[in-house]
User: Fold this.
Amino acid sequence: MTSPPIPDLDRVSAIIAEVAQAAIMPYFQRLRAQDIREKTGPTDLVTAADEEAERMLTPLLAALVPGSVVVGEEAVSADLRVLDRIHGEEPVWIIDPVDGTINFAAGKPAFAVIVAYVAGGRTLAGWIHDPVTGRTAQGAVGQGAWLDGRRIHFDEPVPLPRMVGALSTRFCSDERRDRLEDRAPGLGGIAYLSSAAQEYLRMLEGSSHFSLYHRLMPWDHAAGVLLLAEAGGWSATDNGVPYSPTVMSGTLINARDRESWTLLKEYLLG
Assistant:
């Protein structure tokens, strides 16, 4: 199967930034009670900004690549069958309109928009945009990863006691949670932000060295993993399977190189 053309990265970044300013930022720190509702529980929220941003991004992105389809987090929440599009032959845009909705709903500036462009189960391009700071990370297979116009190349590995990263204990077994909590003090520090987008941005900017997750929805990770890989990083599940948007179970470990991934896996998970 021939890969579809990769859309212009800067054009997509501009669309995301424009939608964020029009549909997300007017609600930031101005949400009313009726603008927030629970999906599956008090830690799974959706706001008017999530819904409006996804509604605006969907036709704009689909128009860039004729025949492409869209998988948005909120569309999947309304109809799980939408997720099946990832396995189809058409190019797929995967959208997380507001990653870090809990932070956004609380008025905290730790959220971002994530967009990935996928075909044949492979991520071809990805974008992460922080509407508060204006930072944008973008990249494509074979084209590198870029943060605010600067190409990202990871530095030399650091030893485990100096590694700082995001270590989530949500969505895992009690046994795994206990082990992670026992091992965490041996690392350089934990900076869990309740936003995968912000945690990927921290890795790209160099202030973080790893991240670990147990809930693998493609809108959270497809773009970030692609960007890390283009910067020299390594991402795989705990059983060693390289990440792809169709992998939705297991524990995902992201590191700045393959050797660090192996050290983290053995230290944290055994």
Helices lie at 9-24, 48-62, 73-78, 101-105, 174-183, 196-205, 218-230, 258-269.
